[in-house]
């Protein structure tokens, strides 16, 4: 899995609440979901993305997603916003 999209994104939104807002506003280009994140958190986002037609990409772990986002802690969900 290449994390280049996350690293190169001009606008990245980290976290469930913030990512949900971006998707609901129709501003998300792609959403990244960590496979080891709590399904109770991620299922709502996955369903919302399906409804809104936003591509969902699964990444191996929260730790790797957090690192790709440039943060020291794990991230369950990150959204790349349209420019």
UniProtKB/TrEMBL annotation:
Gene3D superfamilies for this protein? 3.30.1330.30
What is this protein called in UniProt? Ribosomal L7Ae/L30e/S12e/Gadd45 family protein
Q: Which SUPFAM superfamilies match?
A: L30e-like (SSF55315)
Domain annotation Ribosomal protein eL8/eL30/eS12/Gadd45: ranges: 5-82
Name the family the entry cites.
Belongs to the eukaryotic ribosomal protein eL8 family.
Tell me one Pfam family matched here.
Ribosomal_L7Ae
**Which species?**
Paenibacillus gyeongsangnamensis
Q: Which UniProt keywords apply?
A: Ribonucleoprotein
